[in-house]
Amino acid sequence: MAATTILLVLVLVLAATAASAADLSVYHNVHPPSPSPLESIIALARADDARLLFLSSKAAASPGVTSAPVASGQAPPSYVVRAGLGTPVQQTLLALDTSADATWAHCAPCDTCPAGSRFIPASSSSYAALPCTSDWCPLFQGQPCPANQAASLALPACAFSKPFADASFQASLGSDTLRLGKDAIANFAFGCVGAVTGPTTNLPKQGLLGLGRGPMSLLSQTGSRYNGVFSYCLPSYKSYYFSGSLRLGAAGQPRNVRYTPLLSNPHRPSLYYVNVTGLSVGRTWVKVPAGAFAFDANTGAGTVIDSGTVITRWTAPVYAALREEFRRQVGAPSGYTSLGAFDTCFNTDEVAAGGAPAVTLHMDGGVDLTLPMENTLIHSSATPLACLAMAEAPQNVNSVVNVVANLQQQNVRVVVDVAGSRVGFAREPCN
Known about the structure:
disulfide bond; aspartic-type endopeptidase activity; elongated
């Protein structure tokens, strides 16, 4: 009887532990997708240059600066999660961004924000405006308190303004209860956007969830709740009906994960750098120049795992070697054409079925991430055409950072363990 009781207690404890992780659905924010996957990807990738400019920016590399910009010159990430803010809860869709720290939402009143639902602070009994003296204010790069502030007057709210894509926004810092799945996170600090200057086309429609590793991020603010662990599985762009998942916390993460060490860039602490040691096409290692993948915190060089960039970009010497080997193995009789960001498109009628080789990313720790064919080759539904779904990093935007983007991460569970300084990968159907 005692043994049965102990076993029952253990089962209940394990069940409670497993339930402690928040599991949220992840949706693509472009509906409906193009009938042609190739056309859809090309359209989405047009915004990548702004994103790459943000990821490769050295603006934060000045002495003493230890946090990346709150907002950036990036286009909105392609995936969103459903979250709740306030009491009573107000539902919102937040763009999932692994390279940003701060969470922010469009708040009412805001005549210049994108059309759509907005968070109403006045309707939340748990909302609090954070003053200019708040410890959070300098982290959000907020304006300092007035030098001649009278002691008898209420302190002004922490205000900040940031660029985003081809616009900028003005926001005030506040805190409220953030609800993710069944979890309620009290006193969560976030930006409340009250005005936008410039076009709003590339702004997230309702807000953004910062999943970076810096001091303002969800991971930092939740501390022991999630222990610095989360994972995501991104669904393909191909289907109208799909959702992936965002899993917060160590519980419920897959066991068949292969981990590679995370690298830290003190000038850009939000970004998830990994050490790529090589690429292979089929069974052939790509011959890249020595040091082509080397990590350098001063220049920002290295390889970043990013959920917001659409197609993977390799620096010029790496991509040139990859493209040469890929073309050699495909051997398209009529040669190759360019389409949008892709420069290795070929007539599939001229290539034997299964003629396109797999591309594998090799990383420290013996991690070999072989990309599924749908993550390597994008087909047109209208013509017998397919393209290598990677590209060279634009020289006028980014000449040093390799970015492993969301198209290559689809149907792969990416597990980020900041406390353990590692990131892992496991094949998983997310659709």
